[in-house]
Specification:
single chain; 329 residues; alpha+beta; 3-stranded mixed β-sheet; two-stranded antiparallel ribbon
């Protein structure tokens, strides 16, 4: 028996013996945005003076021979497939949706599953993990700590509506692809000023800089391409100076947390049914740590995280998310 086999057996025993954990900390009455506003992004009010995009404008993205009118980039039309050679043929569920409130998976998570800061990167995650998370959504065990944030709340509604078969179809598709490097981590004391729109940080042109403080500022490398939902256009995450090293100390186990690799595998690239963390969106990771800590993310495997998240501070969450994002997928 290999060391990995032993770990998987231990995880299986823990999963089989699962019962709903008791958690001391409760979600903030005002929502998680009151605690982690940089992770649980709420859109700022708009002035109404910004010029509207021309829906008839034909748009393109670099490295693609595809063109389409802006009007084709909508959830009703399904995900724009700019790079059809970059992923397997999309099942109808991923490309068009499954009806009855189940939107096209590829619209939010992108056709190649790389995802965005406001949702999850699902490419390369274990089939069993994706299926289990969909079951947890459907059974009301997994919720969002900030119902006012659109994408997580939307996913909660989709999870409640999706069938077992739809979960299997999505899991087979997304688990079949490799997750590629997607987030460039930059340690810094100062960051570009951003505004909250589209449920993400958007850099204010000519807005200057400001101290980063205890937060992560994750923003598109190219906002224009992100607006076009180009699944080849990635993100940069600004993190506090020293956060990666501090996160590594936490992740390797120091008495305050359990060593992450015990469950998440070498390099935090996943192990058995346990998800990969390496190189994934730090905004998403931060939300999951807080949701686990406050008990709104529950389910068959969440109790395995109890000891790790119970005493985490906001700074710890920032450091752990910065460290996991810095790793090579």
């Amino acid at each position: 028996m290999t060391h990995h086999d032993a770990r998987i057996i231990a995880l299986t025993i823990a999963i089989t013996a699962w019962s709903a954990p008791t958690r001391a900390q409760q979600p903030d009455a005002e929502g998680a945005n009151a605690v982690l506003p940089w992770a649980y992004v709420l859109n700022e009010p708009t002035s109404g003076n910004a010029p509207a995009d021309d829906p008839a404008e034909v748009v393109t993205v670099p490295g693609s021979s595809v063109s389409m009118p802006r009007s084709a980039i909508s959830i009703a039309a399904g995900p724009p497939d700019w790079h059809p050679d970059g992923h397997p043929p999309m099942p109808e569920l991923v490309a068009k949706g499954g009806g009855d409130g189940v939107a096209a998976c590829g619209y939010c998570h992108l056709p190649n599953g790389q995802g965005k800061p406001e949702n999850a990167s699902v490419a390369g995650q274990p089939y069993a993990y994706i299926v289990q998370q969909m079951a947890d959504w459907r059974n009301g065990l997994r919720k969002t700590g900030e119902p006012r944030m659109g994408p997580p709340s939307f996913m909660q509604r989709i999870g409640l509506a999706a069938t077992d078969e739809q979960a299997r179809v999505a899991a087979e598709y997304f688990s079949s692809m490799d997750y590629k490097p997607w987030v460039r981590v930059v340690e810094t004391d100062m960051v570009p000023k951003t505004r909250f729109a589209g449920w993400i940080h958007q850099v204010i042109e000519g807005g200057g800089t400001e101290p980063i403080g205890t937060r992560i500022v994750e923003t598109p490398e190219d906002l224009h391409l992100t607006h076009l939902r180009d699944d080849a256009s990635s993100f940069v995450a600004y993190v506090p100076t020293g956060a990666v090293a501090q996160g590594e100390r936490l992740a390797t186990g120091n008495g305050k947390t359990e060593a992450c690799a015990v469950c998440h595998g070498p390099g935090l690239r996943g192990l058995g049914p346990v998800p990969a963390l390496a190189g994934r969106s730090p905004s998403y990771i931060a939300r999951q740590l807080y949701d686990l800590q406050t008990g709104v993310r529950n389910g068959a495997w969440s109790d395995l995280m109890d000891a790790t998240v119970s005493d985490l501070t906001t700074e710890d969450i920032v450091n752990l998310a910065a460290y996991t994002a810095s790793l090579t997928p």
